[in-house]
Every structure is written in structure tokens, then in C-alpha cells.
């Protein structure tokens, strides 16, 4: 595995294991010029309950995506979060806002399990794993 990919994957894995803030801290130690650094930051910001920053970073990552399919996926992520932000601003029930009915806290103390909307985090992780595996010419583990 190339060291660049390994360092970026480690930061995302830290974010999955120890919480998104720990992942963002690990990502901050890496060079922002790394390929897909911005997409990883967007994912971790979304996990940390900061959809505005995540949407901005997804859009930025889409502009520098190396392939059309990756650009489309990142653009859809940004659009999904922007639509969510618009509906929250319009007074809709927002699961990421604990101050509203039906809301759950999305940020937690270090070491505490995070509660977040059912958005298929396992799907996101599988997508990341599938992407990096295909880039390295491997399938599975």
C-alpha cells in the first residue's frame, strides 16, 4: 500500500474508531495537498455534526476530483447536505438538532459513542474501502 493512501486511510479509520474529532486531528497532521484530503475532511466534518462545513468541503473536493464518477458522488453529497440545511432552516424536523423535537445529539465527548442520523455510515465506509481497494488493484482483504 502506498504510504500516502495509508496515512489518509489511517485518519479516516481513527475517525471511525475514536470519533470524528480524533479523525480530524489525525487528518490535520497530513499535508492538505494529498489526493482526496478534502473529501476525507468533509466526511469527518459530517460525522462530527457540522453539515455546513462538510457541504462546502464536499463541493471543493468535487471540483478537484480526478474522475467523473467521483466528482458526481461528491457533488451529490454536497447537494444532500445543502438540502438538509435548507430544510432545517425552513423549520423542518432535523435529526442533527437536539433542540428540536425528534433531534438527537450528534457530538459526543471523547470515548463516548456518537449518535447520528441513520445515514448508512457502513455504506460510506464500504464505499471508501471499495474505492481504495480498486485503486490499489485489490479486492477484499
Automatic annotation (TrEMBL):
Domain of life: Bacteria
Disordered: region residues: 90-111
Name of the featured protein: Uncharacterized protein
Lineage of producing organism: Bacteria, Bacillati, Actinomycetota, Actinomycetes, Streptosporangiales
